[in-house]
Every structure is written in C-alpha cells, then in structure tokens.
Amino acid sequence: MLDSIHVGMTGLQGYSRGLRVIANNTANLDTPGYKASSLQFADLFYTGADQAGGRATQLGHGLATTGTQLDLRQGDLRDTGNPFDLAIDGDGLFVLRPEDGSTRYTRAGNFQFDADGRLVDRANGALVLGRDAAGVDAPLSLLGLKTTAGAPTAVARFAGNLSSTVETQTIPSVHVHDAMGETHELAVKFTRTDDQAIGSWKVELLDGATTVGEATMQFIDGRPDAASGKPSFTYTPAGKAAQVVVLDFSADVTSYAAGNLSTLAMSAQDGRPPGSLTKLTFNARGALVATYSNGQEVEGARLLLARARSADATESAGGNRFVAAGGQPWELGTAGDGGFGAVHAGQLEMSNVDLAREFSELVVMQRGYQASSQVISTANDMLQELLNMKAK
C-alpha cells in the first residue's frame, strides 16, 4: 500500500507539471512568435514479483515526465502597420545577437532602428543580424544608406514635333546634372539647313549664350534618321569635370509641317541630384530597401535567417527566443533561398497556441490528477484499516 501511495504521488507530480505547461501556453496566447509546448509522459521502471503459474508479475513505479516538446507550426500573421514589424511566411527564424555576444533565434519580428541606425529587437535591444552582398554576416544597420550621391546626365530624351516649316527653333529648360548632381539649365537650338539636304537641321547645345557643341540631324519622311538621331556633346560645367551628354531624338520625335508651332521638349534624363533618405522597408527577400528624395531605391543587406535540422535541436530560452540545443548545428540562409520562407513587412507572427486543444488537455490533466489523488486516498484508507486491525 505504501508503494501505491508512492505511485499516486508520481501521478500528482506529473499532472501538476502538465497543468503548468498548459497554463504557460494559454498565458502566451497573444505573445508574438510564441511556440506552444506539450509535456511528454512515460511510465517508470518495473520490478518483478513472485511468479505465479510460471509467469512473472511486473509492477510499475508510477508516472515519469521526459521533458517538453515544442510545436514549431507557424502561427497566424497579423497586420500591424509598422514597416519594421517583420514576419516569416515559411521556414526560418530571425538571428539575434544579445549584449553578451551569444546567438539567439526568434519568430517574433518586432524590430526597430536604434539611435545608431542598427536594427534591434524592441523588447530587449538585441542586434538583428543580416547578410551583405559579399556574404558577410553582421548586425544589420543603416551605415552608408542615409544619403545617396547624385549622378551625371548621360542621356537626355526628347519627345514632340519639330515643325518642318520654321527656320529656327530653340528648346529651353533642358536640365542636366553634373557629376556632383548639381543641375544645369541648357537649351537646344535647331536651325534648318535645307540648302544642303531636305529635312536637314543643325543642332546646337547652348549653355546660356555659349555654344557647347554642334551636330547635324536628318529627318526622313518626318522621322529622325537612325544614324543622326542621337547627337553627342561634351559638356564641361564651370569648375566641374567634362561629361558626355547624348541628346536622344530617335524614339518619340517627328518633324511635320505645323506652321510655327513646335511641341518638341525634353521628356526625361537619367541624371539625378543627391538624395536624402525618405523611407525604409523590407521586401519579400528580406532586403532592406531605402527610398530617397531623388526617387532612387537602393537595396541594402538582407536579413539573416536560420533553421534547425530537427525539432530536438531547438530549445526555448524565454523572451520569445530560442537557442540551439545539444550542440547541433543550425542552417543559415536568406529569405526565399534554399527553402527559407518569405519576409512580410508590417506584420507579426502570433502565437500558435490552439486554445481548444489546450482546454481539451486541461480536462485530461484534471481527470488524471483526480484519479491519482483518489488512489492515494484509497491506499491511505486501506493502510489505516490495517493499523486498526493490528490494534485490535
């Protein structure tokens, strides 16, 4: 009977631990990146008793718990509207480096940029690791991304109709950028030279009253001749390096009779002024995308992701973090490559706790605890009866 009380006590202890696991799961029902766990049960060792009829009798010693098992299924993704809240749709965990220099992993991507421009975990300030274009893994930061340099104009494109009946036509407001991104306003002057060939024009690039250069352009049946539709000029802004500027009339320019009315104008150019950072976000590949005031977009480093080779290699460390267990190696990579999932900006992965399942398990734990308690009560009553018999 004493053995029965001991067996009942192991049941009470085991179901108490199971209740604690369920309580922890339900308490973290709304914790981003939380992974539910379940307690694993096993029976204790057996001993042999007297043989009866040639068959051995094995008597168990009760209930044992062999640890908890993580449920690594993906939770629901919830929109937050914060561009630095990140979620992984598929395999992978974000890689963190806390102050102690250790490595931690998480599915909770509630991040922000700190005062030094480093991407950190909002909850505890751990650095978020990324991988640059050279394949180097390091904390992801805004270093080198806060501004972007200007670029000189190489090609200026034009569109519209140059009236074939006018003698001369000047196109103002031809804006180009030098190597430092500074803007210069030039003009293009067309002068008919029909005494040489029908539809022939002299093209001059003007910087104020100064002629930068001249070229000849030919129209055939109202369309620019391919051989002369892209005249090239060498322009040297004051105090700046010389640059080659191509005036592209080849695609959307015509020359038909239109009286004195010409609609020819510059439509686009590929130079740009310097730009300052206006927007940051992450794309599906986990790359940091910086947008600048000059319209340029630049991709920075990509988020570093990791995954364990088996569920046994993952162990909870608190604070929505996981660590590598048992010295087993983890695989590193980036979003969208090698089977890793895609990154979604403005979303967080919520807990994967199934409340209906937890309540079902709660009933089982309660019944098991009650049954173990009843075993102890019954064994105690029987022991008390035995003591009463001896006293008589």
From TrEMBL:
GO terms for biological process: bacterial-type flagellum-dependent swarming motility. Transmembrane segments: none annotated. InterPro entries: Falgellar_hook_FlgE_sf (IPR037058), Flag_bb_rod_N (IPR001444), Flagellar_FlgE/F/G (IPR020013), Flg_bb/hook_C_dom (IPR010930), FlgE/F/G-like (IPR037925), LlgE_F_G-like_D1 (IPR053967). It is found in: Bacterial flagellum basal body. Residues 87-130 form the Flagellar hook protein FlgE/F/G-like D1 domain. NCBIfam families: FlgEFG_subfam (TIGR03506). This is Flagellar hook-basal body complex protein. It comes from Ramlibacter pinisoli.
